[in-house]
Design goal:
By secondary structure, this protein is of the alpha+beta class. It is built from 24 helices and 14 strands. The longest helix has 22 residues, at 204-225. The protein starts with 20 loop residues before the first helix and ends in a 5-residue tail after the last helix.
């Protein structure tokens, strides 16, 4: 260990010694020198603790995460902890391995994978302490390692903690994957470290410098234009094919657009009134009385609301009518055509943009100035770790991971339409039921598409990121979303905007790779309600999803992938069934097949389209299909 990395003598203090201002400043200097890119985040964590926004146990957990691999800093940090807690921390990360640990370490050494040595932690000799011996003897002052874990607290309040990196805020999730770091890395970390090594392009430094310049330039452009950066087009212009090339180019750069008057204001307001009646029926709540929500929105068991005010209703009559509305079908089919749906090399048809299916989603209901509803942190949909690990996604982002940024086209369908156990959405979207705008608890986006996804994909491959970490992915790697944080993606978040003011009947749409979130507070005066209605063109992947979804719809269960709370099975009066579907709705829901005459030959691929439609109908309607 170099002199600059050596722990000051004052750090090896006795249990009775107390840190002073000089030792605190000295420790901060060491942190800043060792990890300049993360120093501001480190200070943010301490500031959040001082403001009493974060519990002490959580601060210890996050700091330990940041200091992994720098044991001299872990030792320095330990001087500010209670003695028993300090001894537990040092023992966890410096203790001699027991028999099981020794066996596991031996297996790591014998592993022929080159990552076995890459991920080992540096050894740091520390003196044994009296507190350790008393702890082992079962002293009353012993420290329980579980105390380092996040305490139980309401789901919504957990997500209010921002600026702490990609913390998994579930109880007992944080330190569990790090306690194995004392003498060895666990197998998922070894895999992730090797995966990153395999994906890193040889010209990463050069590519990263170019990308940073592109991001900074685009963000400045976004900030200069503000809300006007996001295209706002009229439904009639879509209907009559009057959207000009310049607007389409802007849509493809930003990845976000708004469509004015998709439905009439009167229709949207009628949907809103009926949604409120359905909600009162199912939950016995009154939007004029916030206290009435406490029965369903409580700290220990939030039965119907999740992050951002999203509510677990799927099959109300207004939702069904909006999904099958002809105007919504016109817009979604137009959005599908913004994508390149024919493979440039093989000329294979990858989806049928002129045939729109129904992907059932929920609705968002935000009460003004109701602090038990919080927002949604910035994220990307469509998978976390799989973006780097799944072969299909590796092909989708192949140009980026290969260091060829100019060749990357986020509007090519490619392998997106073949990722198993998923659904292919060309856009996520919602229909406004009430007037809403900035600070009304509504949608926020980072409206730069190609630059943002390139930055997100390459960020974990940089040298300042821990070897095992994929920025935005929790250490278990199982999340279906990718968290976007100031810690790793600060330059992108500078470009975050509200989608701006919309009226009932307007729709908002964003590309699945667009960074988005929901404002943390609703500071307005009126309800902020939307129906989530994405666009999902027919393809074999979506046909399989549609078949499973159709079965759930018939039974009154939640669609695949959503919490099955069975709320709507209580009342046939408010729940849509097959008899409530229009002719178009039956086709979109997979009850009736689309006829071949619904296809067009605008791209000269009619025969291949007919073959794909036949395959989709086989999936949906063959009695012997599993």
């Amino acid at each position: 260990m170099s002199d600059s990395n050596a722990a000051p003598a004052s750090w090896n203090r006795s249990d009775s010694a107390k840190p002073n201002l000089q030792s605190a400043l000295g420790f901060l200097r060491q942190v800043k020198e060792a990890m300049p890119a993360e120093y501001d985040t480190f200070l943010d964590v301490l500031t959040q603790f001082r403001a009493k926004n974060v519990a002490a146990q959580s601060v210890v957990t996050v700091v330990v995460e940041m200091l992994i691999g720098r044991e001299y800093l872990l030792e320095g940090f330990s001087q500010f902890l209670p003695p028993a807690c300090r001894d537990c921390l040092l023992e966890r990360f410096t203790q001699k391995p027991d028999a099981d640990s020794a066996e596991d370490e031996k297996s790591v050494k014998e592993d022929k994978s080159p990552t076995g040595s890459d991920v080992k932690q540096k050894k740091c000799k520390l003196p044994s302490s009296k507190a350790n011996s008393s702890k082992k003897a079962g002293s009353a002052t012993s420290f329980d390692p579980a105390d380092l874990l996040v305490a139980e607290m309401p789901v919504e309040r957990k997500r209010k903690r921002e600026g702490l990196g990609e913390m998994d805020l579930r109880p007992n999730a944080l330190l569990g994957s790090y306690k194995l770091f004392s003498r060895r890395a666990n197998q998922p970390h070894i895999y992730q470290a090797q995966l990153k090594k395999d994906l890193t392009p040889p010209n990463l430094d050069e590519v990263w410098k170019e990308l940073e310049q592109q991001v900074n330039a685009r963000v400045e452009q976004v900030l200069k234009e503000g809300e006007n950066w996001i295209p706002f087009i009229d439904y009639d212009d879509i209907l009559h094919d009057r959207v000009d090339a310049k607007t389409i180019e802007r849509i493809k750069i930003a990845g976000v657009l708004k469509v004015r008057n998709t439905l009439s204001r009167e229709t949207a307001e009628d949907y809103n009134r009926r949604m409120m009646r359905a909600m009162k029926h199912y939950f016995n709540v009154d939007p004029c009385d916030h206290q009435s929500y406490s029965s369903i929105y409580n700290d220990t068991n939030p039965k119907t609301f999740t992050l951002g005010g999203v509510q677990e209703l799927y099959y109300t009559h207004p939702q069904t009518e909006a999904r099958q509305h002809p105007n919504m079908d016109v817009v979604r089919r137009w959005l599908n055509r913004l994508w390149s749906h024919v493979d440039k090399e093989t000329q294979e048809v990858l989806c049928l943009p002129e045939l729109e299916t129904t992907y059932i989603d929920r609705w968002r209901h935000r009460l003004p100035r109701y602090d038990r509803q919080t927002g949604m942190k910035e994220h990307m949909d469509n998978g976390g770790m799989s973006r780097w690990a799944h072969p299909a996604w590796q092909q989708v982002y192949g140009a980026v991971l290969g260091g060829r940024l100019s060749e990357f086209d986020p509007w090519e369908v490619g392998r997106r339409a073949s990722v198993s156990s998923s659904v292919f959405r060309t856009f996520q979207g919602w229909l406004a039921l009430t007037p809403q705008g900035p600070r009304d608890g509504s949608l926020e986006v980072v409206p730069l598409l190609a630059e943002a996804i390139s930055y997100v994909m390459l960020r974990p491959l940089r040298g300042d990121v821990p070897a095992h970490q994929l920025c935005g992915v929790n250490d278990l790697g199982g999340s279906e979303t990718l968290e976007i944080t100031n810690r790793w993606h600060g330059p992108l978040l500078r470009g975050k905007l509200s989608v701006g003011q919309v009226q009932p009947g307007d729709t908002v749409w964003w590309h699945p790779d667009v960074i988005h979130g929901v404002e943390s507070e609703h500071c307005g005066e009126h309800l902020s309600n939307v129906l989530y209605i994405p666009s999902a063109p027919m393809c074999p992947l979506n046909a399989r999803c549609l078949r499973r979804q159709r079965e759930a719809f018939e039974q009154g269960n939640a669609p695949p992938g959503f919490p099955n709370l069975r709320i709507e099975r209580q009342s046939a009066e408010f729940r849509s069934t097959e008899k409530n579907l229009s002719s178009l709705g039956r086709q979109q829901m997979g009850f009736d097949p689309f006829p071949p005459s619904a296809l067009d030959d605008a791209d000269g691929q009619l025969a291949k389209k007919e073959a794909m439609l036949a395959e989709c109908n086989e999936i949906l309607f063959a009695d012997d299909h599993d």
